[in-house]
Amino acid sequence: MDFIKNQLDGYGMSEQTIVYLSSMIMVLFIALISILANIITKKIVLKTIIHIVNSNRYTWDNIIVEKKVFHKLSHLVPAIIIYFSASIFPSYQVLIEKAAMTYMIIVTIMVFNALLNAFDAIYRSFEISKIRPIKGYIQVANIILFIIGGIVVISNLIGQNPLIILSGLGALSAVLMLVFKDSILGLVAGIQLSSNDMVRVGDWIEMPKYNADGDVIDITLNTVKVMNFDKTITMIPSYALISDSFKNWRGMQVSGGRRIKRSFYIDTSSISFCTQDMIEEFQKIHYLSDYVTTRLNEINAYNMEHQINTDSKVNGRQLTNVGVFREYIHQYLRNHPKIHKDMTLIVRQLAPGDNGLPLEIYTFTNDINWAVYESIQADIFDHIFAVAPTFGLRAFQNPTGHDIVQLKESPEYSRGY
């Protein structure tokens, strides 16, 4: 500054003009230096760092570059130059230093924020992130970072110790508790969800209260984001997963088997004892030949031992078409390539009702993919409906308009029977 003043003094200018011009020249010089420093930092230093990062075998540093941590850090260079140049302007030194320091604090906060986001992204690249998500903790750290940063900025502007401002926040604790109520509840819920392994990213959850039925795609401090199967997105408060009930289908996904639990309703009027012709036909069926032979031998031995008159089907033990049909379905499922052999397989009768006799199939497929599962289930029941008449059984169905038309067209109806 003195050098510039001495140079201007030789032109015969007034002292006020010299001070004004020298200050303007110095401002332009500092601005030029700051611009050059910024260009050198971004064009040379930053590119060198990015080249080093891209050329090594690690991936975590690439994520740091993607989150622009170094880019944000480069903004500190011009601010540092301006801060240390403030003493050149004694009248405005305090103001310039406060402005430059405030800018540096804000940039530092943004750098740490980018670092936290980079750490979260690095953590997500590991499989454990689906089991132990930390995004909620990262958001808490961000909130604390911005609060501390705000306090430091205010203390710098007013020239007070940050501890004095912190002590004054005690009076605002009730207000802060009200403002950050959801965040506090979300933090507690996030800790419980994580420690108890209740839900992970990628889990299929079902929560009818919030119309949620789909995959968890994100777990944050305040919400759990669920993409439903109709591609809509439901946002569930984190603490709702602690206070309310929900279904997690992860057990099914991990087990490798998906349950089929569906009934085939049989018209009870079609249930009967097996005739000799039916038995001979059943013995031709691959899945039933051994069963029918074994059962007939047991039944004949029992009837002979107890001297039962078999002229009447009511006496003694007899084969029924529904019993043979149930065994056929059981053997059919046992030999089905898409049925899980190590899980429960039951074909059972439920209590008969207005819709006939329910024959429930309870088994598990060995493919949990939704589309494949539905295809397997449909194929099984297609076969059951198609094969039931072979056993003399009819599927129960309430009368339809077609049935009434057929009845009206029958000869018995026209004769008034």
List the helices and strands and how they pair.
Elements: H1 2-9, H2 15-55, H3 60-66, H4 69-73, H5 76-84, H6 93-124, H7 128-131, H8 135-158, H9 162-168, H10 173-179, H11 181-195, E1 204-207, E2 212-219, E3 223-228, E4 233-237, H12 240-243, E5 247-248, H13 250-255, E6 258-266, H14 276-283, H15 289-305, H16 321-334, E7 346-349, E8 357-365, H17 370-387, H18 401-409, H19 411-414
Antiparallel strand pairs: 1-2, 1-5, 2-3, 3-4, 6-8, 7-8
Helix pairs in contact: 1-2, 2-5, 3-6, 5-6, 6-8
Describe this structure in words.
- The chain has a five-stranded antiparallel beta sheet, with no helix packed on it. A three-stranded antiparallel beta sheet has the order 6-8-7.
- The mean pLDDT is 82.
- The chain is built from 19 helices and eight strands.
- It is of the alpha+beta class and 417 residues long.
- The protein folds into three domains: 191 residues, no CATH class; 58 residues, SH3 type barrels (Roll), CATH 2.30.30.60; 100 residues, 2-Layer Sandwich (Alpha-Beta Plaits), CATH 3.30.70.
- Helix 2 packs antiparallel against helix 5, helix 3 crosses helix 6 and helix 5 packs antiparallel against helix 6.
- The longest helix is centred in the N-terminal third of the chain and has 41 residues.
- Strand 2 and strand 3 form a beta hairpin.
- Pfam families: MS_channel_2nd, MS_channel_3rd.
- InterPro entries: LSM_dom_sf, MS_channel_C, MscS_beta-dom_sf, MscS_channel_2nd, YbdG.
- Belongs to the MscS (TC 1.A.23) family.
